[in-house]
Amino acid sequence: MDANGLRRAFTSFFADRGHAVAPSAPLIPHHPRAPLFTNAGMNQFLPYFLGEEVPPHARVTSVQKCVRIRGKHDDIENVGRTSRHHTFFEMLGNWSFGDYFKEGAIALAWELVTEDLGLEPDRLWVTVYETDDEAAAIWRDRIGVPAERIQRAGVDNFWEMGDTGPCGPCSELFYDRGMGPGPGPVRDDGERYVEFWNLVFMQYDRQPDGTLLDLPKRNVDTGAGLERLLSVLQGVESNWDTDLFRPLIAEAEAATGHDYGADPEVDVGLRILADHARSMTFLVNDGVFPTNEDRGYVLRRLIRRAVRQAYQLGVENPITPRLVQATIDLMAEAYPDLRVNQSFIEGVVAREEERFRSTLRSGLSMLEEELSAGAKIISGPVAFRLHDTHGFPVELTREIAAERHVEVDEAGFAAAMERQRELSKEGGKKEAGEQGPLRETYRDLIEEFGPTDFVGYRENESTARVLAVLPVAGANDSELRHVEIFLDRTPFYAEGGGQIGDTGTIRTATGMANVLDTTAAVPGLHRHLAVVLEGVISAGQVATAAIDVDRRDAIRRNHTGTHLLHWALREVLGPHVKQAGSLVAPDRLRFDFSHYGPMTSEELERVEDLANERILADEPVDAVSVPRAEADRMGAIAFFGEKYGDVVRVIRAGNRSTELCGGTHVAALGQIGPLKITSEGSIGANLRRIFATTGTATLDRLRHDEQVIGRAAELLRAQPDELATAIERRLAELRSAQDELKAMRQAAVRDQARQLAGAASADGGAVVARRDGMDQKQLQELATNVRAEPGVRVVVLGGSPAAGKAALVAAVAKGTDLVASDLIADAARIVGGGGGRNPDLAAAGGNDPGRLDEALASVRAKLGLES
Ligand code: SER
Predict the structure, then answer these.
(1) In whole angstroms, what separates CA 588 from the centre of its chain?
(2) The whole model's pTM is what?
């Protein structure tokens, strides 16, 4: 039976017994309590164990890809040195969510291995948890396993997913490869007894404080190692001799020129290559890429470990792509998506290998120097330099040193790392503010995948791969659906050169996101700022990226329109006109340029006419990439102050305009539609700014203007053409009405003045009166009018022009010895204010109108009048 046969036999056995067949989940688990990588078949069922979701089937079976590096289950150090440890393996499993328990699980497992798979019952041993009498009894009494082949163990028979989470006592099945009586698996953990199936009776949830809580239900979680079971079925000594590994070992032999089986140390290296080939292939396939953090770091370490093995075995050429290829040839039948992603995976590992190889030699010789100088310990600074300058994960340094029985000064290394973190934190703060922590990820992305392949010159919709999905910096919990999506290729233009970023959608098989904007996270790396509206989008997925085409078309029209404007301005105003900035949006364009004064309306019209002539001529627009010198020869104008590379993109917008530009443009000038300048003004010394519209925006504007004019004409009851005459007429009417009003008001004031003055003779030419509701200015006007009446010597008026306000005015006739400001000084104080110093006409204000009468009485007293 080969691997494909075993996968089928296992799942169909359980399918025949009422189990639903679940596909393998990705290696990157989604559940918040799941480990870093999927490390067992049960990970994808966490919500069912924890009672968060109701399982659609009470019985399930699957073949699950697993990675065991980092975390509670980490097998990397054993790889190559035993017959059965791998960083990547496949787990055959069956599950019961509150359905059958110990008895059912044990009976099913026994039936499958002894009947369907035909293992000799006499070679099978089982273990149970030290206190699990129930499981021991089932094996002995129900199945008939002799008591001496049932052993008990402690922690080894209590399976836990991680430091916390679902767990429970377990019972394991072993196959005895040896001859004659033996001590059994609990006493011999060497190669004789192969543990191939673990039946976990999942009933607890380990808490962070170590306590065990009951899960809502009692469940079964079993896991049989495909590779181990296969080695037993194929009657070979180790997993490496099965059909799942022989072709990979053969590839490693071919690549290194070493024969397997000739030298035990070389064999370890060949096995590591075969093992890591699988894990790197599957990790990249599921969206991990080599970086300095988390999963990416694990992958980086794997690839570097393999490359270093190959290097030690004398391989000078890239080896990881061919290992990946061999893995895919072997596994694509069971995992067809590997074939789809093949060139991508090969590219990722090849680039990582290339990067590492360039420093590997110097790093190794540095380490070699230390070791051959008889160092007893690799110092912290040396380990750090290897890590920092030579890309040696410290684990790698540790391994190489250990081969020579030398240790690494871990504390010294940790201190050096910490120092660097501090330094880069300080540097990062200065450099990038809040974005600091993300910048490294951006750099990793670009280092890993190179710049984003922008295909938006040709495509509006593209198939791409999701490289990473990051939370938007500073997003809070409720905004977690706001993400930055990175693709290997994209039709979305990233804001730049004045043109704003595209919007649109990104869809994958499991989700959909709305792209709200596109910018460059770092130069060359397109960042799609998006909000996930449906499902999830994850790294590694194939995506359909589609821009909002109508919006982009409007942007195109404005961008090519900007080039025509630039050309036309230089034609009309002269070659001193240089672009100083621009903004190309869907609804309008803005163009800033150098020029010494306002443009006349004739100049503006001329510019519009020239641009529209070219548009109507409908000349083609094309883009060529040429060396800078060639662009200069073509007479291309460059945006002043912009940086350009050695090879530049030249846009010829018709026969007249030639400009360097990375933006998106129409195919022919006619597509721009009518171009209209909407405003022109100054934005600084010798700097002008023009706004203009093109295409439908010009039409929209025309309609808008028409509406405004129409409404105005309606209000004036005139035809639009007669608007100006109608407005002039109305203005003349208004002016004469205003004149009339003014004359009437003056007459009224004079009337009031005469009345007030009438009483003055009795008081020796003095008028003191209260007038509310008149402001300061009106009071003054009235006071001077009163003063002009015959016989008036002095006028003091007070009043409250508005709530909380008091106003006082004094006017004194020529030839008296009274001082206007003195007259109201005390009064002003009484109403809580102060006033002017003018001797003839003084005004004062206050904010206590309640005391106005008192204030006026004080004026009377001062003038010697009766109150
Ligand atoms: N979760 C258990 C294991 O990984 C059984 O599937 O061994």
Answers:
(1) 28
(2) 0.57
